[in-house]
Amino acid sequence: MKKLFAVIGDPIAHSMSPVMHNDLFAIYQINATYLPFRVKADDLEDAVKGLRALGIGGFNVTVPHKQRIIPYLDEVDELAQAIGAVNTVVNANGKLIGYNTDGPGFLTGLASIFPTVEGKKILIIGAGGAARAIYFTLAKEKPCAIDITNRTVDKAKDLIEACPYTTKSNAYSLIEADTLIREYDLIVQTTSIGMAPHDVEQPLKFTALKDGTTVCDIIYNPLKTTFLERAQTHGATIQNGIDMFVYQGALAFEKWTGIAPDVNRMRENVLKQLGGTTC
Ligand code: NAP
């Protein structure tokens, strides 16, 4: 019998996950299908009960359910528990187990251009859900420091206080971060600033970077934000949000099937859907 996989969220129509996972099921000859389901916030509990009753193999969880799904699961792994958000659920013989592959997906994608964060000084721009997953994941990798800058500085402070993994961190306003920017080896842009259709906006207005700095923007639409363009102009190695997206999906697929999928194929597939080439 065909196994069912899904992604739940609201909105969900533009999710690229179904094309990505259905292609993987086809190439690895797994008799399964992956469907998007729009689930309104008030219907989340019923939706999880329904997926459980249908014997779902596993599912992804996206905005706005990543935090609120936790009480409806049977188990949540340590990192997802610490982050307080789940984006991947595995049905292990009737037990729904929650994971967060966003942070590990970012870290795995980063490795191709920035092999280790150990001993490095990092700046995260933003203090929302994605920043939280990335911050907690990077904090476990023994960096020298991870500072956070955000429009609402109190949210950056709250994030630092909430982190269960010991790391040196300061919270800065966007203006303060601009003056400190030459201190960082790695800068990770996690706000929604610069996302289409607001492509010309950028969170920081730096005029120089430290030599050899790597700059990531987790946005993938557009593929090269104004922020990434500016960083490249100032000599940085850059990476957009495609890798994080692809690797969070690859890690989810591996949890469901035990197969480490072909990430290059996944990347090409996502790029085809976006209609561009990577940077
Ligand atoms: P979120 O929880 O809503 O957080 C949004 C962040 O952006 C907050 O730090 C917020 O600052 C900041 N922000 C929003 N508008 C701003 C503005 N006009 N000026 C200054 N700061 C602003 O969102 P999220 O879930 O973290 O997602 C953030 C971005 O990451 C989105 O573009 C999303 O598509 C992308 N993302 C990509 C991936 C991937 O796989 N590549 C995965 C997850 C998310 P305040 O705290 O001050 O409001």
H and E order: EHEHEEHEEHEHEHEHEEHEHH
Radius of gyration: 19 Å
Q: Based on Cα principal axes, name the global outline.
A: globular
Count of individual helical segments: 10
What small-molecule ligands were found? NADP nicotinamide-adenine-dinucleotide phosphate
* Helical fraction: 25-40%
Write up what this structure looks like.
Helix 4 crosses helix 5 (129-139). The chain has helices at residues 17-27, 44-53, 78-83, 102-110, 129-139, 153-162, 174-180, 226-233, 242-257, 263-274; strands at residues 3-9, 32-38, 58-61, 75-76, 88-92, 95-99, 121-125, 145-149, 171-172, 186-189, 214-217, 237-239. It folds into two domains: 3-100 and 243-274, Rossmann fold (3-Layer(aba) Sandwich); 104-240, 3-Layer(aba) Sandwich (Rossmann fold). Helix 1 links the parallel strand 1 and strand 2 (32-38). The protein is of the alpha/beta class and 279 residues long. It binds NADP nicotinamide-adenine-dinucleotide phosphate.
Please summarize what this structure is.
By secondary structure, this protein is an alpha/beta fold. The chain contains 10 helices and 12 strands.
